[in-house]
Amino acid sequence: MQKAVAILTMLAGAGACAATQAGPGPVPAWPHLTITGENTPPTSMFVDGKPAGRQTDKVHEMLDRVGVPHSIDILPWKRAYMMAQRDALTCVYSTTRTPEREKQFKWVGPMVEIDWVLMGRADRKFHLRTLEDARTLRIGTYNGDARDEYLKSRGFNVDPVQNDASNPDKLLLNRIDLWAVAARPDLDMARELGRDGQFVPVLVFNRVRLYLACNPTVPDRLVDRMNAMFDTMRRDGTFARIDRRYQDATAEK
């Protein structure tokens, strides 16, 4: 009898030990996220048939580090943006965070800070001190993006296109007076966007931050983890390393 009790006691102890080692159980796997972006080299683009680019690589590495299964697709902006608004577990980059958009998404970032710039032809002289000075001019925009929404909401004379690549040609043909673009403050805008000296920056009219904007169905705990990982990548030099890679590639062209 004493021997049986001893065996039962030993088994119970082993069971308790095993339960203690097992802990509360494995952390649930993160859901699969669909990530959308637009074709705006060198920010996001296809390289050898795969999504790549300055911000694409940041998003991909962040999700890999967090352990989030995901797919990335490069699409026309309006479709990419609408999918993140409409579809569960979908995020879109690089998205300007504005008061009008604030409650539509959960925000991860910022990924980068950019200037909104009015570009003009180098052979025309503009004397713009503020955005208000451009009120009588025709401004080329990209339909549905943040600059287009910003200028439209303030009553400016905008001429939107479905593909932003059309605006430089429109500017050369005098179909628009200015072109509203986004440019990183640390880059030479004349070199990046100037078409060999044909265009020059006329006015910087806003500075904004770009984010990964996620559908509200993305769990808060995952959003917190993604934000924390972006902070880590910013501090450990990953952002700078990725930016430098694409800056060097651009300089070699």
Automatic annotation (TrEMBL):
The keyword Ion transport does not apply. Residues 1-18 form the signal peptide. Residues 36-246 form the Solute-binding protein family 3/N-terminal domain. Keywords: Signal. The keyword Signal applies. InterPro entries: Solute-binding_3/MltF_N. This is Polar amino acid transport system substrate-binding protein. The lineage of its organism: Bacteria, Pseudomonadati, Pseudomonadota, Betaproteobacteria, Burkholderiales.
